[in-house]
Amino acid sequence: MRSGRAGAASEVSSLSPRGRAIIRDLTYWTGYRHLKKDFPHAFVSHAKKQYVDGVVHTQTIDSFWSLLKRSFHKASRKYLPLYVAEFQFRYNNRTNADIFGAAIAMC
């Protein structure tokens, strides 16, 4: 995975269907701006104390990263993508009573 604006653009373009909205906080990194032609943008501005605008908010991703950072301490850079993938699976299946069956079904 590449870092910086070009890396983010590459990742977003390869992982997200065109037309999927990018919802972000204007206060932070602006590397997604140039993707506007392929991905509609919606935003809030935490710096202006705006946290929700209708259905636009960043609470879900903020919560995800907060839980992830509390779960993995001193994770090596080499294995970080694997830790994030595992945590993503567990997070997305947190209400699934048969999470083990879901994991096995992916094999």
Describe the protein.
- With 107 residues, the protein is α+β, with helices and mostly antiparallel strands.
- It has two domains: 1-57, no CATH class; 59-107, no CATH class.
- It contains four helices and four strands.
- A two-stranded parallel sheet has the order 1-2. Strands 3-4 form a two-stranded antiparallel ribbon.
- The chain is globular, with a radius of gyration of 16 Å.
Q: What structural keywords apply?
A:
107 residues, alpha+beta, two-stranded parallel ribbon, two-stranded antiparallel sheet, 4 helices, 11% strand, globular
Write the layout of secondary structure elements.
Layout (H helix, E strand, L loop, with lengths): L3 H12 L6 E4 L15 E4 L7 E2 L2 E2 L1 H13 L8 H13 L6 H7 L2
Parallel strand pairs: 1-2
Antiparallel strand pairs: 3-4
Roughly how many Å apart are the termini?
A: 24 Å
The gyration radius over C-alpha positions equals: 16 Å
> What structural class should be given to the helix and strand makeup?
alpha+beta
Low-confidence stretches: none
Give the ordered list of helices and strands: HEEEEHHH
What's the domain count?
2
Helix count equals 4
Strand order of the largest sheet: 1-2
Kindly estimate the percentage of residues that lie in beta strands according to DSSP: 5-15%
Query: Kindly state the mean pLDDT as a whole number?
Result: 82
Report the major sheet: 2 strands, parallel
DSSP, total strands: 4
Task: Describe the structure concisely for a colleague.
With 107 residues, the chain is of the alpha+beta class.
